[in-house]
Amino acid sequence: MNWSIIIESTLEAMVTKNAVVFALAAIGLNIHYGYTGLLNFGQAGFMAAGAYGTGIAITQWGWTIGPAALFGIVLSVLLAFFLGLPTLRLRADYLAIVTIAAAEIIRRIVKSTQYSEVTGGSGGLNGIGRGFYDNNPIDSGLDLGIVSFSERELWFMVVGWGVVVLCMVLTYLLVRSPWGRVLKAIREDEDAVRSLGKNVTWYKMQSLILGGMFGALGGIMLTLEQQSVQPDQFFTPTTFFAFTALILGGAGRVFGPVVGSMLFWGIIQFTDVSLRQAIANDHIPTWLMDGVQAGQVRFIIAGGLLAALMIFRQQGLFGNKREVALDDH
Amino acid sequence: MTTDAFDQVEPRPGSPKRDTILSVDGLVRRFGGITAVDVDHLEIQANAITGLIGPNGAGKTTFFNLITGFDEVTAGTFQFKGEPLEGVPAYKVARKGLVRTFQLTKALSKLSVIENMKLGAVGQVGENPFKALIRPIWGNQEREIEARADELLKRFKLYEKRDDYAGELSGGQRKLLEMARALMADPEVICLDEPMAGVNPALTQSLLQHVKELKDEGLTVVFVEHDMDVVRDISDWVVVMAEGSIIAEGSHASIGKNQAVIDAYLGTAHEIDLGTIELDPEKH
Ligand SMILES: Nc1ncnc2c1ncn2[C@@H]1O[C@H](COP(=O)(O)OP(=O)(O)O)[C@@H](O)[C@H]1O
Ligand SMILES: [Mg+2]
């Protein structure tokens, strides 16, 4: 077993692309689910809106990154209206059903040959946002001994985590305000909030929009990092990875989704590399598991860990135990 | 004394009032085959305490739901201060000054008691998501709201609990909190659905006192209550519902002698002593 490789790749996974992208997606879900109690099972759709909006504006229309990203965010706002208007008046489960379906429809549309001129079909879009790395002011990598980063990675991390921190600050400012109080109250009991003169449906819409915008930012960061985007990156499990990250870190906490995303990708990477190492070094016989199967088993193990967490620490890492205990009433 | 307001009022269902703040006409609500509410005409006197009584299933809660926009009428109209209210969404009804509480308490468990209270205040600038970002915009208003909330909490003997989660309160304390929170919304009319149910008897007296004070402050109170001692103690006027309709109106003295009322109560499966009508408060 090569422990230094295991540790290095685990640490790397905790701070690079996926950790950033899913931190943003989970921050969005935290607004929806953690603070407002909305079940958006289609966060992948909002991420796709951001990613494809940016990608299409850059590759098809030659826009620069700034306006293109803004366009992606506008698309996510439109998506929120489109999904929210018919469903937010209804019971919570309607939103869940509609969003999960909508995200899947979006993925299939961008994947279809019908629109491949614009969306690139199943191959997706390439050569997006070269300007992102061209503008990289960092001219040398960073070697921390146990783990090292190229200048490209560093640049993405600076921008990506910068965006994450900005979103956390926004979340913090909003949830401590009277606006945040209304959302938290809606999470507990909509009718009580209505009886106090608040337009609940409109607040839920605001929540859906804001969380969707955070999701879109995740999609945008994904696109910029890869300089490409593929439709299957927005399959249904993408939403549930973000949910897992949120629950792991603790819903309804500002830091919850961010720490959760880092841990989630750390655990995935750790189990993946450990299993591969163990197989390569014959610690695990191939009749039991081979290298290809390890890629699936890592999710099984991550799921098992999450289940254990829910049993022993229901509130997630950052959650408030006293609050969770109130659910029993 | 507002009791005078009823001097000239006939004790019969649908009788006109001197200052009507709320009136309903031909109000019907059906659930499938059940007619939950069927009220020909009812007027509620402003700045008075009206008790709404009736056996379980009489339609009292449904009546509250209808006039506060929480349920849709099958037929009929109703006016608040002369303005038609049918089809107006619940939150707008509340903003107009017609605020209700719920029979099954809706304290917001994971918000602290003080946050519950502050939520009730209307016209908060910080409830706009853009202004919410900048505390100086809403900070002063927040402090004023908090001061008002603390006053009410003291009045309702909840001040010691202000920083506890509402979910940690007893059932009776939650009832008190819900009533205090409704008052934060500056109502003109407050509809209380069984406000005393589950409240510790020691607190009931002071709670009754608060309700009387509300009237002195100019509010109109409509409340559902099963305890006839309570009804006798605080209501200026009593309206009796049975099987969806208003079967009697009058002072509590005249109600106790009303044959239709006695029949309505005896017609139910409950043990009734009209001296102290004490139906099961947790009937659900
Ligand atoms: N949502 C509903 N669906 C079906 N029936 C209902 C509903 N709400 C109330 N009812 C029925 O309407 C009648 C009146 O109920 P309710 O207004 O709760 O009476 P009260 O508050 O006077 O005890 C009852 O027969 C009840 O079963
Ligand atoms: Mg009732």
Short overview:
By secondary structure, chain A is mainly α. Chain A has helices at residues 3-15, 17-36, 43-59, 65-87, 92-111, 116-119, 130-134, 151-175, 178-188, 190-194, 200-226, 236-249, 256-280, 291-312, 321-325; strands at residues 125-126, 142-143, 148-149, 228-229.
Strand and helix layout:
The complex is a heterodimer of chains A (329) and B (284).
Chain A: H1 3-15, H2 17-36, H3 43-59, H4 65-87, H5 92-111, H6 116-119, E1 125-126, H7 130-134, E2 142-143, E3 148-149, H8 151-175, H9 178-188, H10 190-194, H11 200-226, E4 228-229, H12 236-249, H13 256-280, H14 291-312, H15 321-325
Antiparallel strand pairs in A: 1-4, 2-3
Chain B: E1 20-31, E2 34-45, E3 49-53, H1 60-67, E4 75-80, E5 83-84, H2 90-95, E6 98-100, H3 113-120, H4 129-132, H5 135-155, H6 171-184, E7 189-193, H7 201-216, E8 220-224, H8 228-234, E9 237-242, E10 245-250, H9 252-256, H10 259-266
Parallel strand pairs in B: 3-8, 3-9, 6-7, 7-8
Antiparallel strand pairs in B: 1-2, 1-4, 4-5, 9-10
Helix pairs in contact in B: 3-6, 5-6
The structure holds adenosine-5'-diphosphate and magnesium ion.
Structural summary, described in words:
The complex is a heterodimer of chains A (329) and B (284). By secondary structure, chain A is an all-alpha fold. Chain A has one domain: ABC transporter involved in vitamin B12 uptake, BtuC (Orthogonal Bundle). Chain A contains 15 helices and 4 strands. In chain A, the strands form 2 sheets. A two-stranded antiparallel ribbon of chain A has the order 1-4. A two-stranded antiparallel sheet of chain A has the order 2-3. In chain A, β2 and β3 form a beta hairpin. The N and C termini of chain A lie far apart (49 Å). By secondary structure, chain B is of the alpha/beta class. Chain B folds into 2 domains: 203 residues, Rossmann fold (3-Layer(aba) Sandwich), CATH 3.40.50; 61 residues, no CATH class. Chain B contains 10 helices and 10 strands. Chain B has a 6-stranded mixed sheet, sandwiched between helices. In chain B, β7, α7 and β8 form a beta-alpha-beta unit. In chain B, α3 runs parallel beside α6. Chain B is globular. At the A-B interface, α8, α9, α10 and α11 of A face α2, α3, α5 and α6 of B. Bound molecules: adenosine-5'-diphosphate and magnesium ion. Adenosine-5'-diphosphate binds next to β2 and α1 of chain B.
